[in-house]
């Protein structure tokens, strides 16, 4: 299973080679892998920002605990969750579903009403927590796809979401930064690249209930 070998190869890269860039072709493959991620109800209630602009990344660096990956990696990826999921989001998804699958939009009304009832009953903070969780599924696929392409990546929670929201103007768009990742190529000076993976034994991590 090649996936296992890819996952053994990858690690959270701490120091990137700033002179090496991910090709447009490989970036498109990573984007497609993220777009194919599972999401609750299929809504994909998040947006992914790919930040190349060096000036913006310099502004984001202090809000990222000064970590060098923010400016040295080829690309900075910001997963932004929806802060609200109103009827228009659900209707937009159902229209896309109807068009894609050759269905009648009106025939999906019952499913739409079900989603609106369930999501509408959630407090605002619960909605934000729920949509933020969805971004991590996309992040997982980004890491796996990058590993297959032998592109290094570093998932990062070490940043200040509120500052990201301000710098990137996310709040007025109904978005909030949930988790970030940097992709590129490891520096030969990255001292952590030779470290053995530390993982619980399989029999400790998993328990079979029969």
Primary descriptors:
alpha+beta, 45% helix, NADH Oxidase, 210 residues, 4 strands
CATH architecture: 3-Layer(aba) Sandwich
Strand % is 5-15%
Main CATH class: Alpha Beta
Whole-number tally of structural domains:
1
Provide the low-confidence segments as ranges.
Answer: none
Tell me roughly what share of residues is in helical segments. 40-55%
- Could you say which overall geometry the principal axes of the C-alpha atoms support? globular
Please write the string of helix (H) and strand (E) elements: HHEHHEHHHEHEH
Give the name of the CATH superfamily: NADH Oxidase
CATH topology type: NADH Oxidase
- Please state the average pLDDT score: 98
Structural class: alpha+beta
Number of helices: 9
Estimated radius of gyration: 19 Å
Description:
This is NAD(P)H-dependent oxidoreductase. Its cofactor is FMN. With 210 residues, the protein is of the alpha+beta class. It has a single domain, classed as NADH Oxidase, CATH 3.40.109. Helices cover 45% and strands 14% of the residues. The protein has nine helices and four strands, in the order ααβααβαααβαβα. It has helices spanning 2-9, 24-35, 54-60, 69-72, 87-101, 109-120, 124-148, 161-168, 202-205, and strands at 46-51, 75-82, 152-156, 175-184. A four-stranded antiparallel beta sheet has the order 1-2-4-3, with helices on both faces. Helix 2 (24-35) crosses helix 7. It is globular and about 60 Å long. The two termini are 27 Å apart.
């Amino acid at each position: 299973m090649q996936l296992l070998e890819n996952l053994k190869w990858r690690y959270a890269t701490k120091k990137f080679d700033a002179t090496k860039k991910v090709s447009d072709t490989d970036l498109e493959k990573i984007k497609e892998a993220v777009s194919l991620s599972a999401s609750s109800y299929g809504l994909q209630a998040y947006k992914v920002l790919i930040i190349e602009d060096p000036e913006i990344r310099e502004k984001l660096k202090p809000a990222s605990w000064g970590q060098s990956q923010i400016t040295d990696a080829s690309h900075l990826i910001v997963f932004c969750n929806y802060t609200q999921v109103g009827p228009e989001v659900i209707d937009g998804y159902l229209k896309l579903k109807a068009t894609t699958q050759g269905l009648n939009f009106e025939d999906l009304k019952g499913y739409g009403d079900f989603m609106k009832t369930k999501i509408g009953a959630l407090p605002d903070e619960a909605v934000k927590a729920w949509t933020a969780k969805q971004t991590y599924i996309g992040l997982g696929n980004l890491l796996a796809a990058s590993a297959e392409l032998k592109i290094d990546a570093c998932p990062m929670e070490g940043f200040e979401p509120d500052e990201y929201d301000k710098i990137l103007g996310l709040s007025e768009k109904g978005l909030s930064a949930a988790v970030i990742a940097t992709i590129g190529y490891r520096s030969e000076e990255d001292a952590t690249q030779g470290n053995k993976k530390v993982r619980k034994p399989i029999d400790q991590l998993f328990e079979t209930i029969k």
